[in-house]
């Protein structure tokens, strides 16, 4: 009999051990995401997080009412932006609630640090939610393994490191937690868990636009169960509760509003809700009608309702009552759609199709365990396993179409890997059958008495029971080693793979996902680190040396950072809601200097900012993005901008003296290469394009205001008309009086 430890029974000891393991997993999940803070400092990363941080700071300083009704006049000049009605407020409200709670406890933490460390803390909660999901579909072993995997998987770490203050930082936790509550509701037929799943879904809707994945996957699960003939009252209660409460709650978010009732992305959920009501009604009629009459009525009703539903859907879509699929969703089914019709979507690197190395990069060993997890799910095929299979298939497809969606694939891959590894451990770490065989038939140890939990253990136990009483108590050493050897070999191999997976995850997190985009680092020949802080240097200069109401034109990539760090008015930013306005900025940068000057004056531009990486070899600069600016501008202004004009006669994208006249005359080319040959010398070389520098670049209408230490960011002042003199060529092209600045109105 196994004795008590710390006064706890065996079951309590196991629970305490699982709790301790889960706590360690949470600590590792948080710690693995702190490389960026340790190596650099507590700083907000990337582009979108700067908008989230700026709005969170506004919420903390001004209260929820002003935040909800905030009209930001400094964004999308001269249009402005209704902030409260055009964002998902979940991450801001969460951070503000944590900040206020800490201050209520007299813990004086800055809101910036709350934002920086929010994603790592929620990654620990994601590990806990994944544990419960794995436990729900398999057992505690699978749950712990799944939690350990998602705690360090690069596919999730990529959007949850310290400083990555983006919506996905809390959304993946809500995604996993919603699915856990849904599966629990289906298994128990519980309206309570259905309501909890709806509540978690509402939180998800408030946090991230990826909620559409939930509201399509859960109806797909219900539809699949109905098609398989697995209708039950449990399923009816769970889905009816979830859909009704979840839809009503989601409509309380202003940015979502009535979309669940008239957009194509939500029609599957609504249709499934109607279908399950019909199925429930038919089951009710079955008990009241003769079988022959019921079958005839059922066939007629299904055919009529299907025809009416399909026809109504088509008619309402054609009449505009139901909004068609958006371009982002079309691009999930046709990878070439965005490039042809919506180049601004295709221009974003995370919207590109996923290359095979990315799967190995972000998932590694988990990618190989996914098929095994699907196999074990098919072998059991409960209602919950049907959900796991559907999630795996569709998430894998969407992750292949768009590299960003590896993020939604990672949770199910971790769960499936946990199921696969749990089955391996159950088979190859179960030595009870061997113990029973090696002891004598008269041995009454606990191991010999313990019931087998697998087919292999049960077979070994039956062999042990057939051993005659007079047999030796223990076989020879060689036989015992031979019995243990195959299991030992398998486990040693798996432990090696898991160890290498951990090393891979640590290396990827450290080297690829822990460097903020606003602070760059390079290595000197002696191995020492050199920090390149040109972005913050430029934004700080703008903040300190330009008027408070100065308007800065840049490509939309830098809009949120300019608003957050420089605190200046921008024409476009990362919201990208107005393609025409962005195309206008692209037209300014693609036009010749005189035309660009006239456009800049019409839009009240005071400064123009460009990012130029030719000195450092920074490949993400504006010259490399220039073709996308041209394509976007051409889509709106086809008579003024032509992509082919920027290529040489032999179709090359050149920036040196062999470049096309249109390229050399463009404002982007001039702002980037102006005076650069003075620094690099006569034999200067563009380290990104691997081309010689143009020999002569002149500017007349724009004055260099500031260039950062490493020439990564260049800022130019738009000259006043008086400073240009009567010989200014743009004045000749200006027809009529200059129009007054448009009135700022919400879009």
From TrEMBL:
Annotated metabolic or biological route of this protein: Protein modification; protein glycosylation
Residues annotated as domain Oligosaccharyl transferase STT3 N-terminal: 17-417
InterPro entries given in the database record: Oligo_trans_STT3, STT3-PglB_core, STT3_N
Localisation per UniProt entry: Endomembrane system
Recorded catalytic activity of this chain's protein: a di-trans,poly-cis-dolichyl diphosphooligosaccharide + L-asparaginyl-[protein] = N(4)-(oligosaccharide-(1->4)-N-acetyl-beta-D-glucosaminyl-(1->4)-N-acetyl-beta-D-glucosaminyl)-L-asparaginyl-[protein] + a di-trans,poly-cis-dolichyl diphosphate + H(+)
Keyword Metal-binding belongs to the record: yes
Cellular-component GO terms for this entry: endomembrane system; membrane
Obligatory cofactor(s): Mg(2+); Mn(2+)
EC number of the protein: 2.4.99.18
UniProt keyword annotation of NADP present: no
Pfam family for this entry, one: STT3
Domain STT3/PglB/AglB core: start-end pairs: 551-608
GO biological process, one term: protein N-linked glycosylation via asparagine
One Gene Ontology molecular-function label: metal ion binding
PANTHER family: DOLICHYL-DIPHOSPHOOLIGOSACCHARIDE--PROTEIN GLYCOSYLTRANSFERASE SUBUNIT, DOLICHYL-DIPHOSPHOOLIGOSACCHARIDE--PROTEIN GLYCOSYLTRANSFERASE SUBUNIT STT3B
Name of the protein described by the UniProt record: dolichyl-diphosphooligosaccharide--protein glycotransferase
Annotated source species: Coemansia biformis
Source organism phylogeny: Eukaryota, Fungi, Fungi incertae sedis, Zoopagomycota, Kickxellomycotina
